[in-house]
């Protein structure tokens, strides 16, 4: 399937640079088989039924963007995945062309990294060292939130990003990108969902920087997903089973929750506990086994995420919905608005 089928033109001004305040004041586009509904996030309880189940990703973002020096040269490093050995990280470094194996990058007094290996696509493997305290403490003390490249900041990040780019239910540290569909939720919204009789449960998938990478191959089948670590517990499996037994719907909040549930689902639609890496790439033709509704933000053209929503909602329907969203001034990407997608009929 050609990648250009998943391309579209997006005006630069539609890319949200800051989130809505309050979070639950974002807009919501309901994408159902026969209509598009222009609504708000606070309308979500009315769109769901009692005994429906929200599945949210409780990963917590680490401030993994580091600024340092190699000699007199400024180096920006974005850590994106822990390495196989203690205190090693895979990272993207800018500028990275002149870096060599063995080079040392100094981030702060007593906190540095040595380049162990260069990989394709500007990726490097680093050995981090902290003279006092742990490496993870040094990262938290010196790092900034790893905002995606389409959110522009002059110099250092806006200090508000430390809170804005984190869900209110984040608890399992390990992500280098936020599960952005979850950013719309507030205690007020959760209370309204509770009053509606909608249940919630959590999975953990530590989002990697690869989530922002466009598909560069001519066909989507040639693209290889970055593996991400996830956990789906017995408790969550039981909640999913109870929901389906009662005739409720499983609502995946974000692509990460959806991909992890589907990774753990068997062909008979049963879901089993899971812990490990997933590199599941969902594209049109995939048969969804366990997820019934999908809440997600508006995604990049030619991205694995737009391919995913096209698989769930149907390519033509999603192209029409995105055209409507652009015309109606919806805000796109991580700090943008969201949509609730009803699953396309299986063909």
Protein described:
The protein is of the alpha/beta class and 347 residues long. It has 2 domains: 3-61 and 165-342, QueA-like, CATH 3.40.1780.10; 65-143, Thrombin, subunit H (Beta Barrel). It contains 8 helices and 17 strands. The protein has helices at residues 44-47, 135-142, 161-164, 187-196, 234-245, 255-263, 304-313, 315-327; strands spanning 27-32, 35-40, 53-57, 59-61, 65-70, 73-82, 88-94, 104-108, 111-118, 123-130, 172-175, 199-205, 228-232, 250-253, 274-278, 293-297, 338-342. It has a 9-stranded mixed sheet, covered by helices on one side. Strands 5-6-7-10-9-8 form a 6-stranded antiparallel sheet, covered by helices on one side. Strand 1 (27-32) and strand 2 form a beta hairpin. Helix 7 crosses helix 8 (315-327). The mean pLDDT is 93.
List the helices and strands and how they pair.
Blueprint: E1 27-32, E2 35-40, H1 44-47, E3 53-57, E4 59-61, E5 65-70, E6 73-82, E7 88-94, E8 104-108, E9 111-118, E10 123-130, H2 135-142, H3 161-164, E11 172-175, H4 187-196, E12 199-205, E13 228-232, H5 234-245, E14 250-253, H6 255-263, E15 274-278, E16 293-297, H7 304-313, H8 315-327, E17 338-342
Parallel strand pairs: 1-17, 3-12, 3-14, 4-11, 14-16
Antiparallel strand pairs: 1-2, 5-6, 6-7, 7-10, 8-9, 9-10, 12-13, 13-15, 16-17
Helix pairs in contact: 7-8
């Amino acid at each position: 399937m050609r990648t250009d089928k998943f391309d579209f033109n997006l005006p630069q001004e539609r890319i949200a640079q800051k989130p809505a305040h309050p979070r639950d004041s974002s807009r919501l586009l309901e994408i159902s088989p026969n209509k598009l509904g222009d609504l708000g996030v606070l309308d979500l309880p009315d769109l769901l039924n009692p005994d429906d189940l929200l599945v949210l990703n409780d990963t917590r973002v680490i401030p993994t963007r580091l600024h340092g020096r190699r000699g007199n040269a400024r180096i920006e490093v974005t850590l994106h995945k822990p390495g196989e050995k203690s205190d090693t990280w895979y990272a993207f470094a800018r500028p990275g062309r002149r870096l060599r194996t063995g080079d040392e990058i100094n981030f702060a007094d007593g906190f540095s990294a040595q380049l162990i290996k260069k990989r394709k696509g500007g990726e490097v493997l680093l050995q981090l060292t902290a003279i006092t305290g742990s490496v993870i403490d040094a990262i938290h003390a010196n790092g900034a939130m790893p905002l995606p490249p389409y959110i522009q900041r002059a110099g250092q990040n806006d200090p508000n990003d430390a809170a804005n780019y984190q869900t209110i239910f984040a608890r399992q540290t390990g992500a280098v990108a936020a599960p952005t569909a979850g950013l719309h939720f507030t205690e007020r919204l959760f209370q309204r969902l509770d009053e509606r009789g909608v249940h919630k449960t959590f999975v953990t998938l530590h989002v990697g920087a690869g989530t922002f990478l466009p598909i560069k191959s001519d066909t989507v089948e040639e693209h290889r997903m970055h593996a991400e670590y996830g956990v789906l517990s017995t408790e969550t499996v039981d909640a999913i089973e109870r929901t389906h037994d009662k005739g409720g719907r499983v609502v995946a909040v974000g692509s990460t929750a959806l991909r992890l549930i589907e990774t753990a689902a068997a062909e008979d639609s049963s879901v089993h506990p899971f812990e490990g890496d997933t590199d599941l790439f969902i594209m049109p033709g995939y048969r969804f086994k366990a997820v019934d509704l999908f809440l997600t933000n508006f995604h990049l053209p030619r991205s694995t995420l737009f391919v995913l929503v096209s698989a769930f909602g149907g390519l033509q329907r999603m192209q029409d919905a995105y055209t409507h969203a652009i015309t109606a001034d919806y805000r796109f990407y991580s700090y943008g608005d969201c949509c609730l997608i009803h699953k396309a009929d299986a063909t």
